[in-house]
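Bit of a strange request maybe. I'm writing a small parser for structure token strings and I need a real example to test against, not something I typed by hand. Could someone generate the tokens for this chain?
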Amino acid sequence: MYKLSISETKYKTPVFKKNQPDDSYKYQPLPKPSGRYPYHMGLEEVITDPPQDKMVFHMVGDTGSVRNPSFQKLVVAQMLRHFKENGSEADDPQFLYHLGDVVYNFGEASEYQKQFFTPYERYPAPIVAIAGNHDSEVNPDSKPYKSLDAFTAVFCDTEKRTIPFSAGASRKSMNQPNVYWTLETPLATFIGLHSNTPKFGIVTEEQREWFRRELLAADKLRPEKAVIVCIHHSPYSADINHGSSIPMIEFLEGAFAETGVKPDVVFSGHVHNYQRMEKEYPDGDKVLFIVAGGGGYDELHAVASEDDDRFTNDNSLFKDVQLLNFCDDKHGFLKVELERTGAGLKICGEYYSIPHEEEIDSDDPAVLADSFCISLEN
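Reply from user aminoacidic:
Good idea to test on real output. This should exercise your parser:
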């Protein structure tokens, strides 16, 4: 974990970065859904014979990199160790849930081989995803294409097939029904959102209404299934590059208040580090907000220092939100386990940071930098 020096104190709350320009003009229209409303996909379409009582998966965001792909390769190499070293196949990750920014700097098809298919060619499990802001951007200097054309070809196809721009990679396309969609599993409902291109995200009213309906539907499946929300833009963050996204806080918290439904955990990327925050609500409920965006982009984002006058935590939206732990100086990834016990469901996460910055074949295993567990009683 990050070690504090004598001369600095890191924020222990979310921060807001002052004097940020409005880039909402970057909003991109969404592609047509490839599946039917309400855009659900069962885990049985991802893996055969989904486990009923224990589910293990990786989770990571912001893996792509134009300038230096070595960090992504280091992270993938460490994720592969979770398949090699376990004594039981039940402990192997069954899939990877990508939190967005698969490719940089624009969502071009020409970048997928180098930034996705080649780095993950040895990763043995399926990969599902939500799109990040860079996946959604359009390069004005490239041959004309629409936002998310390449992303939908890879992740939102109508059938599994070889991707034309993958250079014949064995990894086939995924059949997600839309760029915002719900993954149904025996142990949890994953509601995946699309927060578009601007730096702090934009969600249209059409998706807001879908999200409210999904929260209500997922809540009816409790306590048999946990409710997990995934969104690229981090609502709460203490980093120096982005800071917290006020629009995403207002969107999420507004939906939670309107429906009376809170998820068990919210996962996000966008910020290139790891943060575990917890919000305690007036009714006593507590929700974890996890940032896991250190998946490979070469530039990491430090947590802000309290003496840095570019940031403030003086905002009522940050009330009762605390930064419990972080890792801002190493790339890494999450391994998450959901298990059904006699008392109810458990959601346990482990964040691993890579122990080196150079050798892919190093014998040093990834370092367990943080862990958490949530118990959901019957």
